[in-house]
Queue: 4 jobs
Job 1
Amino acid sequence: MTLQMPSSRENVLQNENFFTRVWFKYLENVYKSIRGGTDIKLGGLLNVNTTSASNSGVGQTDLIDYTLKANSLSATGDILEIEAWGVYAANANNKTVTLEFGSQTILTTGAIAANAGSWRIKARIVRTSATAQEIIAEIISSNTSVSDSTTRTAGTQTLSDDNIIKCTATGGATDDITQYALLINLYPNT
C-alpha cells in the first residue's frame, strides 16, 4: 500500500468535513499498514455527566441519562462500561435506584429504607450479536441496610438503534435520591 500524505493547505474553516475525512482516512491507512490491514476502532470515554439530578415526588424519576448511538457496539465482543453514583437522603423513606439499558432494567435495589449513605453502580455490557448482550451490573453502598449485589442480565437490545442508558429513582419524597455522575466507556474488540 502506498501512502500519500494529504495536503495541509486545504482551508479547514471553509471545508472542515472534507479536511477531517481526508486526514482520518490517511491515518487509518497508516494504522492498517502497521497492523496488517486491521480496521481502526476508536474507544475510550464516551460521556461524563456530573450535573446532579434528584427524584421528584413519590413516582419514578429519570435521573442522569445518555443516548448510546446506533451501532456504537458494532462488533461481537465490544464492551460498554457504565459507572454511576449518588447518595440517599437521611430519612427512613423507602428508596429504589435502577439502572436501565434501552428497554431493560439491568439493576434495581428494590425498595429499601436507606437512611443516608452513598451508592455506586458499575455495569459491563458485552455485545454477543446485533440483538443480544451479556450484562453484569453491581451496586455497592456505604449504607448498611443496602446489600451489595450483582445482577446478570441477558440483554435483548437492538444495537442498530439508539439505546438510552439511565438511572431512575423512586422515593417517598422529593430529593430522597440524588445521582451525581454517569460515566460511559467503550472498549472495542480489536
Job 2
Amino acid sequence: MTGTGEQRPDDAHDRVQWLEAVTDTGLAGLSVEHVLSELLDKVRALMGVDTTAILLLDPSHRFLIATAARGLEEEVHQGVRIPLGEGFAGRIAAERHWVALDHVDHSTVLNPILWEKGIASLLGVPLIADEQLLGVLHIGTLTPRQFTSRDAARLWMVADRVALAIRSQVDRKSVV
C-alpha cells in the first residue's frame, strides 16, 4: 500500500495470485490429507520458505500435534507434541494471533527439530474455524528473514482454507 491508500499494481497482482492458490477448485475433490499437502507445497513455493508445518489441537485441547509438514517431515514422524501456551506454536494457539521469530533456538521454541535443522526464522498463524481453535500453521527459513504483517496476512489466507478443510472432515465424521 502506498501512503495515499492506493494499491500498487504488484500488490493487486500478488493478492490475486494468492487468492487463486488457496481457492483452487482442483482441491475440492481431494481428501483432507491431500488438500493439506497441496496447500503446504503452494505456501512453500509462493512464500519462498524452506519449511511448512501444520500442528493440530489434540482432543484434550492441551497439546498441538504435528500432523503435516514439508521440509520438517520428521516432526510428523516423531509425533511432536507441543503444550498449549508453550513455545512458538503453543503461544500462537493460546493467543490466537500470528507470531514471527527472527531467531530460533531452545529459548524461543520447544521443538528441538527446528533448531537442529537450522531453522533461522519462523512465522505462524492459528487455524480457526467457527471461532474454534483447530491448530497452528507455521513456515520457516534456513536463512534469517524478518517476516512482516503482510506475510502473516498471506499465511492467514491459507490458514483459513486449511481450517475449513479440517472442519469439513470433522463434520463429515460426526454425521457418519
Job 3
Amino acid sequence: MPDYQFYIQDYLGSAISEEDFPRLCKRAGEVLARYKRIYTVTEPESGAEKMAVCAMTDALSGFEAIQNGEAGAIQSAAIGSVSVNYGTSTAVDISPKGQARELYRCASLYLDIYRG
C-alpha cells in the first residue's frame, strides 16, 4: 500500500490532501483486493500496484468532490469577487456502476487484469 510520500513523489499526485489520503487509499486498496479475489492480477513491473492504488485513490477523491458539490460541471460563474457554482449535472458518471468502471480502468492502467 502506498504512503502519502509515494503519492506525491513517485506518482506525482497533488489532488488529495495528506489528511484524506489514508482513508481514500484504504478504500482503493480494498477494491484492488477484491479484484485479486475474482481476477488474475499481475504486476508487469515493480511498483505498478502502488501506482494503480494511487490512480484509484485519485478517482475516489474526484467522485467525493463531485458528490459534495465541490467539483463537476460549472453551472454559473462570476468574475467580480470570484464565485463558482457546481451543478449536479456532470459529464462524469458517478453512479455505482460508473465508479466501478472508472476504478477498474485506473487499475488497468498499471496492472494486467484478466479472468483466468
Job 4
Amino acid sequence: MENPCCGFTCPVEATLRLVGGKYKAVILWHLMDAGTLRYHELHRRIPRATDKMLAQQLRELEKDGLINRKVYPVVPPKTEYSLTDFGNTLSPILVEMCNWGKQYLDYQ
C-alpha cells in the first residue's frame, strides 16, 4: 500500500531511495569501517567514481541525514565525512550485504 505522505509503495522502496545510488552503499560502508574520511580518502577507496558522481552521492547522503560533512576554513580546503547516528543504523544491513556479496563471489 502506498504511503500517502512519502509516495513509497513499500519499505524496501524507501530504503533503496536512501542507499540505492551508484556509490551510496559503498560510501556508507567505508565510513562505517573508517569512522571519518576526507574527500580524497573516499575517492582513493572508490577509484571508479568520478569526482562529479562522488560529490553528488555525498551531497545526497548528507541531505538525507545519513552522513555529516565538516568543512574546515583552511587553504587548501579540508572536508571530512562521517556517519550520523541515523546513518549508523544501516550498519547491520551493510554487513549483511557484504556477507551476501562474499557468498556470491565465491560462486563465481
